[in-house]
Amino acid sequence: MSTAMNFGSKSFTPRPPDKGAFPLDHLGECKGFKEKFMKCLRENSFENALCRQESKEYLECRMERQLMAKEPLEKLGFKDLIDEKSEAKLKTL
Amino acid sequence: MQCRDRQPAPTLEPAGPGRGEGIGATGLGGSAVAGHDSDQIETMEPVKDRIIKVTFNADVHASLHWNFRPQQTEIYVVPGETALAFYKAKNSTDKPVIGISTYNVVPFEAGQYFNKIQCFCFEEQRLNPQEEVDMPVFFFIDPEFAEDPRMANVDLITLSYTFFEAKEGHILPLPGYQ
């Protein structure tokens, strides 16, 4: 049986990002969402898990302003937040 | 110049008639790492008991007069959970400057599990005089990190970005740089 891929002692090789580069937000259109996210981090000991809603909102801002290719949120790792949103919507009906 | 339409890594498809290649679990090749396409992102589950501290460094090459720094010193993440972090760059000169960055991850062996979904690296970024911009990095640590015995004692990963000036005629040692 062949073994799993052996990375051995290779030195680190940088890889381009999967979806390419973010266009620069020259106009600061999403700066407010960034600030909200950073504030959340500062208030939560920089724990990413507690600020995922804010990070989702930042990325949604980018998508709405052509600063990021539109993707379903599940494909960005936010499927659990979408489910919660749907549940909340159902409750308000 | 935008590269939003860069194709994500190919999703796994069954090989059909006439297809010379099939991308299967065993066919990723020696230089590829475990697939991190958007299907994986959609289905991966966070490994909540493996908290990893990610710290951030920022450097500029001596000839690039930008103020470049991370906006957070650290973020705590778990494998399988997408995370966002920010850097900030300011062109403190009175001329537009085009920069391009590369990154490094230590420990080296953890780098294979560090997946950048999107960031600001490897593409030329132009800042106008005195312009300051946020530079996001959207990433995750592959859940397989938690299953690698070599990573058992790794709870700190440091991400370092370095910006260079992209001048015409200069060739920079960056993957895919033309």
Automatic annotation (TrEMBL), chain A:
Superkingdom field: Eukaryota
Name of the featured protein: Cytochrome c oxidase assembly protein COX19
Organism: Chelydra serpentina (Snapping turtle)
Compositional bias (Polar residues): 1-12
Region (Disordered): 1-21
PANTHER family referenced in this protein's UniProt entry, alphabetically: CYTOCHROME C OXIDASE ASSEMBLY PROTEIN COX19
CHCH domain location: 30-64
Keywords: Cytoplasm, Disulfide bond
Family: Belongs to the COX19 family.
Entry-linked InterPro entries: CHCH, COX19, Cys_alpha_HP_mot_SF
Localization per Swiss-Prot or TrEMBL: Cytoplasm
A UniProt-annotated Pfam family: CHCH
Biological processes annotated in GO: mitochondrial respiratory chain complex IV assembly
A single cellular component GO annotation: mitochondrial intermembrane space
Automatic annotation (TrEMBL), chain B:
PANTHER family: CYTOCHROME C OXIDASE ASSEMBLY PROTEIN COX11, MITOCHONDRIAL-RELATED, CYTOCHROME C OXIDASE ASSEMBLY PROTEIN COX11-RELATED
Record Pfam families: CtaG_Cox11 (PF04442)
Topology class, membrane: Single-pass membrane protein
Summary of the function given for this chain in its UniProt record: Exerts its effect at some terminal stage of cytochrome c oxidase synthesis, probably by being involved in the insertion of the copper B into subunit I.
Gene Ontology MF terms in the entry: copper ion binding
Cellular localisation: Mitochondrion inner membrane
Domain of life: Eukaryota
Record's compositionally biased regions (Gly residues): 17-32
Keyword Iron-sulfur: no
Region (Disordered): 1-40
Record's protein name: Cytochrome c oxidase assembly protein COX11, mitochondrial
Assembly and binders: Interacts with CNNM4/ACDP4. Interacts with RANBP2.
UniProt keyword annotations, A-Z: Membrane, Transmembrane, Transmembrane helix
GO CC field: mitochondrial inner membrane
